[in-house]
Hints:
The structure holds two protein chains of two kinds. Chain A is of the alpha+beta class. Chain A is built from 18 helices and seven strands. Among the domains of chain A are: 1-168, no CATH class; 319-456, Mago nashi protein (2-Layer Sandwich), CATH 3.30.1560. A seven-stranded mixed beta sheet of chain A has the order 4-3-2-1-6-7-5, with helices on one face. In chain A, a hairpin with a 3-residue loop joins strand 2 (331-338) and strand 3 (342-345). In chain A, helix 4 (91-102) runs parallel beside helix 7 and helix 12 runs antiparallel to helix 13. Chain A is globular and about 70 Å long. The longest helix of chain B is centred in the N-terminal third of the chain and has 23 residues, at 5-27. Helices cover 23% and strands 33% of the residues of chain B. Chain B has helices at 5-27, 33-37, 49-52, and strands at 29-31, 58-65, 75-79, 94-98, 109-123, 126-135. By secondary structure, chain B is of the alpha/beta class. A five-stranded mixed β-barrel of chain B has the order 2-3-4-6-5. Chain B has one domain: CATH 2.40.50.870. The chains are: A alpha+beta, B alpha/beta.
Amino acid sequence: xxxxxxxxxxxxxxxxxxxxxxxxxxxxxxxxxxxxxxxxxxxxxxxxxxxxxxxxxxxxxxxxxxxxxxxxxxxxxxxxxxxxxxxxxxxxxxxxxxxxxxxxxxxxxxxxxxxxxxxxxxxxxxxxxxxxxxxxxxxxxxxxxxxxxxxxxxxxxxxxxxxxxxxxxxxxxxxxxxxxxxxxxxxxxxxxxxxxxxxxxxxxxxxxxxxxxxxxxxxxxxxxxxxxxxxxxxxxxxxxxxxxxxxxxxxxxxxxxxxxxxxxxxxxxxxxxxxxxxxxxxxxxxxxxxxxxxxxxxxxxxxxxxxxxxxxxxxxxxxxxxxxxxxxxxxxxxxxxxxxxxxxxxxxxxxxxxxxxxxxxxxxxxxxxxxxxxxxxxxxxxxxxxxxxxxxxxxxxxxxxxxxxxxxxxxxxxxxxxxxxxxxxxxxxxxxxxxxxxxxxxxxxxxxxxxxxxxxxxxx
Amino acid sequence: xxxxxxxxxxxxxxxxxxxxxxxxxxxxxxxxxxxxxxxxxxxxxxxxxxxxxxxxxxxxxxxxxxxxxxxxxxxxxxxxxxxxxxxxxxxxxxxxxxxxxxxxxxxxxxxxxxxxxxxxxxxxxxxxxxxxxxxxxxx
Lengths: 460, 139
């Protein structure tokens, strides 16, 4: 798979961040320049990385890398320095430090083996960037530790662990990645699809995910299909070019258009003047979309049937309240209540459910005193692992007022301020909780409740 | 009617001031933050021309103040989504410097206008920013 394509997909991680961020392998790989020459060549092992892995250049073989003439002691000291930076440096340098550390090869492995400990809790202490970086190691013990963590739903950096493993997936890991294709975390599903694409495994296993509620997962599937000789995946990317949806004031549709255009550029000669910054009904984009439609038809045949969840959608009228939960353990939820008492589940093309008449007005009756409460600031906690945002449009035409609670991987007692609890409780109780074949709806209240408990602790 | 020079000059000043501000605002180029933050980036390699052509320009750009912004500072990270959630890749944010005042965290989408500086900025061998924006204020 082309790394440029992967990087373009990685850009999508920013839209859903969504993907509690698609902690994407693609992202990781796109950053892998000369400083990460180590990677995954598993010389002598029966579990070799797949052929063509972009990382499969052994230390010293990359002509762009200067010869390393440091002494073993100097290399060890450098490993220690980078290890520390990857854990404790400014967030912006941690990933870079982790990748540079991994480029040291066995010296890095030794340094990591000394700190990974025995349990997943020990491993979690290394932080997200190092956990992800470990995936570039050839050391079997370290790789096994990542798989062990990936199987632990309480491990806070599961997306990062799977992302690391997917840098250079081994041919004998197909079943393990397949097990993750239905994971509750969209970011885990997405990176597993990515690994699946690299392994060129049976495409039938990933095709159902073309209907995944998360658009980044669908995008990964589309790319995996395209890169493995199934150009019909282009139609799912084309659909993204036509999105005009928002999530309150976040232009999710425009973000998706820009990312999809970058992605599609890799597969068609030119974009015929399409510009994702402009709406799809802009005169130039209408013309461009017509040209692109013909090109894709020539490449991939007629547009296949695409599930509603994957089709382009527009802005929602009457968004009044919303809650957005992103939990590194429990998953992501994007919920909105509208003036006409609809519950919208998801971003992009959301599922709409009609609630009892007056439900939104009743919720607003709780929201108004909540937002009128005298308080200091609008944000409690610290970013890192779990987050909830409550959005309320207090009056027509207002920007949404947002209150945010967030925390790192460790539990924080009573993090959510007490004045916010009644509103959150009221919102959650309005959610259906019946079993459903639609994964967005199945036991929705129970799942959202669990995610909120993971964030603010004091929900129940 | 007698011509009163002072009133005339005052009138010009009254009209011209907002006009000048407006002209300044019109000079700024609207840029979608995703055009910057969605790029393929590898250290030391050329950035896309659609990005580099914005270097040094006055731009108007919408996004979010990153969670974890330090109150009272003069610098913050500007991101395409509220939740970067502790993860900060160098191509995923614009480093904003306030020329007047200090930062108070503000949730929700905000619009900034200022001069955009593009290129790798390194500290201790690590790239710490690709995009930098100087703004007078953010409200």
